[in-house]
TrEMBL record:
UniProt membrane topology term: Multi-pass membrane protein
Gene Ontology cellular-component terms listed: plasma membrane
TM spans (from-to): 43-60, 72-89, 128-148, 185-204, 216-240
Location in or out of the cell: Cell membrane
Organism (species): Neoroseomonas soli
Family per record: Belongs to the FliR/MopE/SpaR family.
GO biological processes: protein targeting
Alphabetized UniProt keyword annotations: Cell membrane, Cell projection, Cilium, Flagellum, Membrane, Transmembrane, Transmembrane helix
Official protein name in the record: Flagellar biosynthetic protein FliR
Main location: membrane
Length: 258
């Protein structure tokens, strides 16, 4: 390609790069592991730009040409941002199951009042919720599960071509189904602690009836916390294994995956 042809192709290449970054960059900002709030924004921005450089050569044939109208160009960019946020959000909502399970576990263990800063929620969260959220991030990054959402993102151009109207109804249904699956996974992860809390409270109720003179409250609070922490330490490998299987199944069901 001579210099004149290269200069003539630069506007089209620049517009295609902006379109690709609109979808890929928006998705990277919310993807599990890569897009966590603990990752500095500069690194997430660099990851988005790196994906554009990697995927743009294979996307040029599937991206629309630059429109003559500025309003149409803005519409195309906004559509790509919406698609990227939707795809990244579908994967991110799965990882939130660990944080939800941690919140439930804290309530069952009597640790709901011990709050720590939680960047994911933008406020304060429970210690166990923060612990399990970080464990989920480490698992996604360490096991390579983050590759599956990236693969779905790269193949999403076949399912949702750039410039096509976003299927809002289907997208909302998919997001609601992903949220329901995430909640179900969180409940499965917290189920052993629900059973343990029921057994402990039944035992304390029987103790209060058998020996009314015993100050059950002062015995129950430290005992419940110690028993819960011991149970959490014992079940942590199983919790991570169950979450890994659930996350893999959810990522494989993302739109665009074969």
């Amino acid at each position: 390609m001579d210099e004149a042809a290269l200069l003539a192709a630069l506007p089209v290449l620049a517009f295609h790069a902006v379109l690709a970054f609109a979808r890929l960059g928006a998705a990277v900002m919310v993807l599990p592991g890569l897009g966590q709030e603990d990752v500095p924004p500069a690194i997430r921005l660099g990851l988005g730009l790196g994906l554009v450089l990697l995927l743009l050569p294979g996307l040029t044939d599937r991206l629309p040409p630059p429109p003559d109208d500025a309003g149409e160009a803005v519409r195309l960019i906004v559509l790509e941002v919406v698609v990227g946020l939707w795809l990244g959000g579908l994967a991110r909502v799965t990882v939130l199951a660990m944080a939800m399970a941690g919140q439930a576990i804290a309530l069952l263990l009597g640790l709901a009042q011990a709050l720590v800063p939680d960047p994911a929620s933008g406020g304060m969260g429970t210690a166990t919720g923060r612990l399990l959220a970080l464990a989920a991030t480490v698992l996604v990054l360490g096991s390579g599960l983050y590759v599956l959402p990236l693969q779905a993102l790269a193949q999403s151009y076949d399912l949702l071509p750039a410039g096509e109207p976003f299927p809002a109804g289907t997208g909302a249904e998919a997001f609601a189904a992903a949220a329901a699956e995430s909640l179900a996974l969180a409940l499965r992860l917290a189920a052993p602690f629900v059973v343990a809390a029921i057994l402990v409270n039944v035992a304390l109720g029987l103790l209060a009836r058998i020996a009314p003179q015993v100050q059950v409250y002062f015995v129950a609070v430290p005992g419940q916390v110690l028993l819960g922490l011991a149970l959490l330490a014992a079940l942590m490998p199983a919790l991570l294994g169950a979450f890994g299987e659930g996350a893999r199944a959810a990522f494989l069901a993302l739109p665009g995956m074969p």
